[in-house]
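Please predict the structure of the following assembly.
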Amino acid sequence: MLAPVYHVLPFTAIERERTLPIDGNVLAKMGQKVNATDVIAEASWAREHRLVEVARALGVSASQADRLLRVKVGDEVNQGSELAIGSGIIPRSVQAPCDGRVVVTGGGQVLIAAGDTSLELKAGLSGTVIQIIPNRGAVIRAVGALIQGRWGNGRIQSGTMVSLSETPDELITASNLDVSLRGSILLGGFIRDADALRVAEELSLRGLILSSISPALLSTAMQMNFPIISIQGFGQIPMNSAASRLLFSNVKREVTVNAENFDRYTGKRPEIIIPLPVTQEPPLPPEVDTLAPGQTVWIRRPPHAGAVGTLMHLKSGLTALPSGIRARAAEVRLESGEQILVPLVNLEIVG
Amino acid sequence: MPVSLLEDSSLLAINVGASTTRAALFDVVEGEYRFLAQGQAPSTAEAPFKDVSLGVRQAIADLQAITGRILLDADQQLIKPTQLDGSGVDALAVTFSAGPTLRAVVVGLLSDVSLESARKLAETAYLQVVETIGLNDHRKADEQINALLHARPDVILLAGGTDGGATRSIQKILESIGLACYLTPPEKRPAVLFAGNQSLTDDIKSSLEKWSASLHTSPNIRPSLETEDLTPAARELAQVFVDVRKRQMPGLAELAAWSGGHILPTAYAEGRIIRFLSQMSGSSRGILGVDIGATAAVVAAAFGDEWTLGVYPQLGVGENLPALLHYCRIEDIVRWMHLDISPSVVRDYLYQCSLFPGTLPATQEEHVIAQAISRQALYLAVRAAKKNFPRTARPLRPDLLPIFEPILAAGGVVGDAPGGGQSLLLLLDAIQPVGVTSIILDQNNLLPLLGIAAEFNPLLPVHILESGAFMSLGTVVSVVGQAPYGAPVLRARLTYTDGSEAHVEVKFGGLDVLPLAPGQMARLTLQPLHRADIGNGPGRNATIQVTGGAIGVVFDARGRPLEFPSDPVRRRELLKKWNWFVGG
């Protein structure tokens, strides 16, 4: 059976397509070296539109009004500038209600696009631009360690990764955060209260890497100005050993936390990238593989949610689970040596 | 127009769900259609696969392994028609529910007339209404344009005006829609379905054809103030949905081509088979179909020629799981659990499972949580659907459902439950039927597949339904009335075909079961006490023929609506007792 691959890799090539949701201006150049927080493309769109009823204001028919217009599509207008002037001894005029750009005229009306909302697209990883996607963005390639997460608050930042303890089950509280962490990316376990997040923001933390996050904290976490990433998802799930080992072995290194929102359809997901010097270009990792004995697997659901083990044997036919459900299953040996039965759909391949 | 399946014999029916893709094979055996086997595989609409046809090919490969019949050639293309060596199939039909909920804007005139009908129309598909524009909308035209741009709709449902009635108001709104579509980047423009005053069709075409992703028209959903007819528009909306998805979802266009156009949204196909069965039965009683899936909870009800379809993505038990808490409290979910599980664990479950909707509960505790969530989602879906039931479907009391016979149920948690008792109890708790009804489990999720086949080959669903491909859970007698807890409310006598009898005195607040094996018939004599009502009127006796099922004949005298002890320990004990009664 095909299964998705969950990436926890100490040294790999990483290619990411970074695109704007709408057409815009691509700033990055082919072959350019970019940092994760560099803006590679930008777009802007009107904050609002204002419809001016010229015909009604002048008391004429729509076709007459169109002939009296002094503006055309694409013209920039300022508040108060004349859009149309009527006829007669004392002609009435119609003025623009706001600064903006004329986007539609006709039918005795003028539609003005007003105010700019802009969007900046960051590179998301430090690497080299290997492809330009016209009007939308670029593909960036990097080499380094890659650890994928399950949830992110949408922010991107780079910094030195530090940890308060040697293990990933540390409870982060407001009281154990201090000024020495300023500008760092903190690797920790869990957070139980929103105060810790607020203190982290006050301390100008550059990022927070958690084992898992309580759903009760999501709205606060989304408001934070630094990236927050949860490796395992929601609740109190301990960090998987593969991610834990890789992250703790890279403490004090420069890392990028791209806490992008998980999107199951595009495949965008939060991730931590640790850039490494290249001696030989490694290959890109597979995104999909067929489940087979010997593979390292990650377990998605309790009773061993988040644990990593080795797939020992694929059972034939359907197997009854403790829940009573019958499903295709595999025997998985956990790192503790315990051998357990896991439905195949609850497995991801680690690699 | 798709080629008819009528002259074909074998049919491969594919159902692409959010979590699972199923491939079911139907063929003629001894002059009748039979469900032969089903293969399945995880769906592949999502990353990293991003191509639904991968999951379809895997499901077909699984089916090949089960049946030994070769269906795919060396290039992984479907072999069609059936070859002399027995490989291949004659026809393919596809239903699908995978993919994100589409964003819809509903436009009409009067809020309790065309807008209300347009909202009901939106409920027949996997849509989330994100903006509404009507005559009572006091926003200026430019504010409406801004709202439309902000809403980023995939679909605009445009209704309003009775046939031959006034046109000016809808034309005014049309200007805003046209401008908003014009200002939207071409690749993001919505599809538009117009189902209003038919004299406006030309205006609609000239205003919107150029600026919409696709423009569809259907007969007016409110041809007059007194008349509502959603059926043709719902059919067209199903086509709109297919068109939008084909653009969004790689692999779906290939499946549409394989099937020769026999492709429908799963929920619509479910609705259609329920309507088809109701028309076939000729009974005045309604038929109810429920499906609690990862994409949506679906409730289809048919009363002869009248039918309603409610599709509730917000109550789906997949990626939208956390949204369930916008419609109920966490305690409303916890109340269904016979194990002592804290609300915070349930909350974590909702969020974590939304990340992995295709996964299975492996432990008993997880299964109990999954069932409680499904109960609550289905409970809410049925109550939402009830509002749209036709006026002719009169319940015993305004707060109760009309009597349905039968109730057909499908969905992962319902079908996955071991035995049949847990499934039955889940359905009784969530639906809370009244009167006498049989409960049928569609454990292979065949209903939508029969729904798409029914239009072209009416024999196939009839044969399959009679063939035993569905699991009868039993006949349920639900007693409506009030009595002191523990007081007898019903005496029942079951007379088996060999003349032997079984008796039970059903007490208020409890469940009882009399055994009757699947396929067996028996005569059931019912004598309500305390003016209890079993569907014939307060205190009125009845003698009916009943058919057996996995559980037998079940008497549900727990009251309508169900009420629980406020003490959590007593509540859990009661739930355990109910579970035990149905063998769960």
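Chain A has a mean pLDDT of 95. Chain A has five helices and 29 strands.
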